[in-house]
Amino acid sequence: MRLKMRAVVLSIVAVLLVFSFAPNSSFAICMKKGDVAPEFVLSDIDGNIVKLSDYRGKVVLLTFWATWCAKCWEEIDFIQTSLEKTEDLAIILINMETRSLSEAHLKKIKTTVRELDIKFPVLLDLKLKAYKDYCISSLPSTAIVDREGIIQFAGPHFYKAYREKINNVIKELSAK
Description:
By secondary structure, the chain is an alpha/beta fold. It has helices at residues 2-21, 70-83, 103-115, 129-133, 160-175, and strands at 41-44, 49-51, 59-65, 89-95, 122-124, 141-145, 151-156.
């Protein structure tokens, strides 16, 4: 009996230790409301340089995604159907691809973007700097940045409940 109780206690302690050192996976992103959004300088799929600061004065929706992420495509569809026509909203997709992105893979990304008629910038984070600065641990993840560069929402939005929250935050910021 004592051995069984000891095993249960050790199991509970082990679980608590794991979760105490794990990042906040409920948000999958270390940024939170009120944080200054980290600057990034990335290339888009056509080689143009894009900086977050280029969008100062606009509400910005950053979506971190990858081509292999099925839920990411659902989110891109949500963005296109629900948010694309929102006035004064800059939508930026930050694609997580490896440093050794081949020409064939880049061509696939470009083809997919054109086939889906994505009209907002698709950036390549080849060195994963933006992913590290925003502490992305799950895809897709989103941050909404206000006109002054302050994060107003950050989290994964593969749960449908976040979609309403994202819409509400954008509506509120767009009204200001």
